[in-house]
Design goal:
Elements (H helix, E strand, L loop, with lengths): L2 H21 L10 H24 L3 H23 L1 H15 L5 E4 L3 E6 L7 E6 L2 E7 L6 E3 L1 H6 L11 E5 L2 E15 L2 E11 L7 E3 L1 H4 L4 E5 L2 E5 L1
Parallel strand pairs: 4-9, 5-8
Antiparallel strand pairs: 1-2, 2-11, 3-4, 3-7, 6-7, 7-8, 10-11
Helix pairs in contact: 1-2
Length: 233
């Protein structure tokens, strides 16, 4: 059958379907309703357009079949990616945690929960954001406050030279002085807190910033399971 004949035959079938659709309101149509017939016509129109385009283009059927198979594969991959999006996100988080030490891993348990894995030095490290700036910290449950190094404080938007260091703190290097500031926001993975007081250590007095209990105590709970720390909001 020539392309033109095929096109007009299908168009005639669609025209008949439109007539049935118009009459289905007043007659007992063999379909369950206008919706079913409308969907069939919609698909038929699209099928006609695609078929006419393929037949009119003069492309070889083998090439058309390969192209359709490729697009079908792409569609299946997109559907599978959407269906398994949470599992893929967990995999991505774990890969990121392996590449960037201290990266929190979100856990899909019905709540807002993140997990930290113990670093090679035996400590739990956490990559947090202070006022939007990334800060690599050591989780210190023995520290009452979160303490930033001078460099991390500068990255978070504070000027260490203009701060008033009147607070005495104990560090691994001994006693040091620190200044009190307020962080607009501290974020750990999907957990976020606003207006958190933090300390800024004098330059050279602290090797790493510390994530202390003034942030951790705002959580609903945390526990350590082997080499993993679970923090629940």
């Amino acid at each position: 059958m020539r392309t033109s004949n095929f096109f007009w035959v299908v168009m005639a079938a669609i025209g008949g379907g439109l007539i049935l659709l118009l009459l289905s309101d007043t007659t007992d149509a063999p379909f369950s309703g206008n919706d079913d017939l409308g969907r069939m016509l919609y698909l038929g129109i699209w099928g006609t357009v695609i078929a006419a385009g393929i037949l009119g283009s003069g492309m070889r059927l083998g090439y058309v079949a390969r192209s359709l198979a490729l697009w079908l594969l792409v569609a299946l991959l997109l559907v599978a990616g959407y269906q398994y999006r949470y599992e893929l996100q967990d995999v991505a988080n774990r890969v990121t945690a392996g590449l960037v030490p201290g990266s929190p891993i979100s856990i899909s348990d019905g709540g807002n929960t993140v997990m930290l894995e113990k670093a090679g030095n035996g400590h739990f490290e956490a990559r947090i954001f202070v006022n939007g700036a990334p800060v690599q910290t050591v989780v210190d449950t023995g520290a009452t406050a979160t303490v930033l190094t001078a460099a991390d404080a500068r990255a978070a938007g504070y000027d260490p030279a203009s701060l008033n260091y009147t607070i005495t703190v104990s560090t691994a290097n001994g006693r040091a002085r620190a200044a009190r500031v307020t962080a607009d926001e501290i974020t750990l993975g999907t957990i976020s807190r606003s207006n958190i007081p933090v300390l800024v250590a004098e330059a050279g007095m602290l090797d790493r910033s510390l994530l202390g209990m003034n942030f951790i105590s705002t959580l609903s709970g945390f526990d350590v399971r082997g080499d993993r720390m679970i923090l629940r909001d």
